[in-house]
């Protein structure tokens, strides 16, 4: 494994992210949280573009933190790495003594590091252990999911998280196969998926394992549940004038981000009131018009930007008390 994180990772839509964050990060002493540090490409871009900014980088993957830490060491104490999941943002900032931040950046989904490290089991292109944990030191593996979940629950995960048309058939075949021997390798699962999906669909529907691998990864890492907590928690850490930029790579993620931004950018007053009470006025302003996609130049430079959907919002006032959820970073009991 090479330690050169810069050569292994091209950050998606970096310049666009910098442009969107610039108004919020212009002030002296500005702080940004990179909630999904990965190999540090976006953070390096921010630290170079804004010499006065401090970045707190969160990642649940110790390997990513180690690689990014080496990459970003030249920036000294302007960069603070933290081993944490991004729904813990409020707790992390409280521990660091930071009351509010001027920027939050979230680059969702599986990282380049995780895709490229064969033994992590994220890729369906090479045989590896069925793992898929973003934090390889803790939690449920994909092998445990496919070998212990009942058929109905497997089908639900594949249908909801993978948007897989043949979820019921695949779940049935998984249960049948594991009765003979546990499924422990990605190659075994890919062969099963190829046999489960009709030949006509395989010709036009992309790789037959893509949707199932996405679904298992989301289940193993609790990605959507974490994101549901993380977006509102991140908004609550923003100072007035602060901005949040989120890059999502599939519709389920983007829907959660869109919903959270819309809630903040829409009046909470009943529609029939003649005058909007100040306490019900929006507390966010949408900075992007819908979700932005990569242009041809970005696609040529970085093929992994193909499915990106970027959204940004700016805090324009504090969140009204009646719109606040749980305290940022704190999970419900």
TrEMBL record:
<keyword id="KW-0698">rRNA processing</keyword>
<feature type="binding site">
    <location>
        <begin position="40"/>
        <end position="42"/>
    </location>
    <ligand>
        <name>S-adenosyl-L-methionine</name>
    </ligand>
</feature>
<comment type="function">
    <text>Specifically methylates the N4 position of cytidine in position 1402 (C1402) of 16S rRNA.</text>
</comment>
<dbReference type="GO" id="GO:0071424">
    <property type="term" value="F:rRNA (cytosine-N4-)-methyltransferase activity"/>
</dbReference>
<feature type="binding site">
    <location>
        <position position="59"/>
    </location>
    <ligand>
        <name>S-adenosyl-L-methionine</name>
    </ligand>
</feature>
<dbReference type="GO" id="GO:0005737">
    <property type="term" value="C:cytoplasm"/>
</dbReference>
<keyword id="KW-0949">S-adenosyl-L-methionine</keyword>
<dbReference type="InterPro" id="IPR002903">
    <property type="entry name" value="RsmH"/>
</dbReference>
<feature type="compositionally biased region" description="Basic and acidic residues">
    <location>
        <begin position="311"/>
        <end position="324"/>
    </location>
</feature>
<comment type="similarity">
    <text>Belongs to the methyltransferase superfamily. RsmH family.</text>
</comment>
<keyword id="KW-0963">Cytoplasm</keyword>
<keyword id="KW-0808">Transferase</keyword>
<feature type="binding site">
    <location>
        <position position="114"/>
    </location>
    <ligand>
        <name>S-adenosyl-L-methionine</name>
    </ligand>
</feature>
<feature type="binding site">
    <location>
        <position position="86"/>
    </location>
    <ligand>
        <name>S-adenosyl-L-methionine</name>
    </ligand>
</feature>
<dbReference type="InterPro" id="IPR029063">
    <property type="entry name" value="SAM-dependent_MTases_sf"/>
</dbReference>
<keyword id="KW-0489">Methyltransferase</keyword>
<feature type="region of interest" description="Disordered">
    <location>
        <begin position="292"/>
        <end position="333"/>
    </location>
</feature>
<dbReference type="InterPro" id="IPR023397">
    <property type="entry name" value="SAM-dep_MeTrfase_MraW_recog"/>
</dbReference>
<feature type="binding site">
    <location>
        <position position="107"/>
    </location>
    <ligand>
        <name>S-adenosyl-L-methionine</name>
    </ligand>
</feature>
<dbReference type="GO" id="GO:0070475">
    <property type="term" value="P:rRNA base methylation"/>
</dbReference>
<dbReference type="Pfam" id="PF01795">
    <property type="entry name" value="Methyltransf_5"/>
</dbReference>
<protein>
    <recommendedName>
        <fullName>Ribosomal RNA small subunit methyltransferase H</fullName>
        <ecNumber>2.1.1.199</ecNumber>
    </recommendedName>
</protein>
């Amino acid at each position: 494994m090479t330690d050169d994180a810069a050569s292994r990772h091209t950050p998606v839509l970096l310049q666009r992210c910098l442009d969107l964050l610039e108004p919020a990060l212009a002030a002296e002493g500005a702080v940004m949280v990179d909630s999904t540090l990965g190999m540090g490409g976006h953070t390096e871009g921010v630290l170079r573009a804004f010499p006065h900014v401090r970045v707190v980088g969160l990642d649940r993957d110790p390997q990513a933190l180690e690689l990014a830490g080496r990459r970003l060491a030249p920036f000294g104490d302007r960069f603070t790495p933290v081993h944490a999941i991004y729904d813990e943002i409020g707790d992390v900032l409280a521990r660091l003594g930071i009351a509010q931040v001027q920027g939050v950046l979230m680059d969702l989904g599986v990282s380049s590091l995780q895709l490229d490290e064969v033994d992590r089991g994220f890729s369906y292109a090479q045989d590896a252990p069925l793992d898929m944990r973003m934090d390889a030191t803790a939690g449920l593996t994909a092998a445990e999911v496919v070998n212990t979940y009942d058929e109905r629950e497997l089908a639900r995960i594949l249908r909801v998280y993978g948007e897989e048309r043949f979820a019921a058939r695949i779940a049935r075949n998984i249960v049948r196969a594991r009765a003979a021997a546990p499924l422990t390798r990605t190659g075994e699962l890919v062969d099963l998926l190829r046999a489960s999906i009709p030949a006509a669909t395989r010709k036009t529907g992309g790789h037959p394992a893509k949707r199932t691998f996405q679904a298992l990864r989301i289940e193993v890492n609790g990605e959507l549940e974490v994101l549901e907590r993380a977006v509102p928690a991140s908004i609550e850490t923003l100072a007035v004038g602060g901005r949040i930029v989120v890059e999502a790579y599939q519709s389920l993620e983007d829907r959660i981000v869109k919903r959270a931004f819309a809630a903040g950018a829409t009046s909470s007053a009943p529609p029939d009131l003649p005058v909007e009470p100040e306490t019900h006025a929006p507390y966010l302003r949408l900075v992007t018009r819908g979700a932005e996609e990569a242009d041809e130049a970005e696609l040529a430079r970085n093929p992994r930007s193909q499915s990106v959907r970027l959204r940004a919002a700016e805090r324009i006032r504090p969140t009204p008390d009646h719109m606040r959820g749980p305290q940022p970073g704190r999970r419900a009991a």
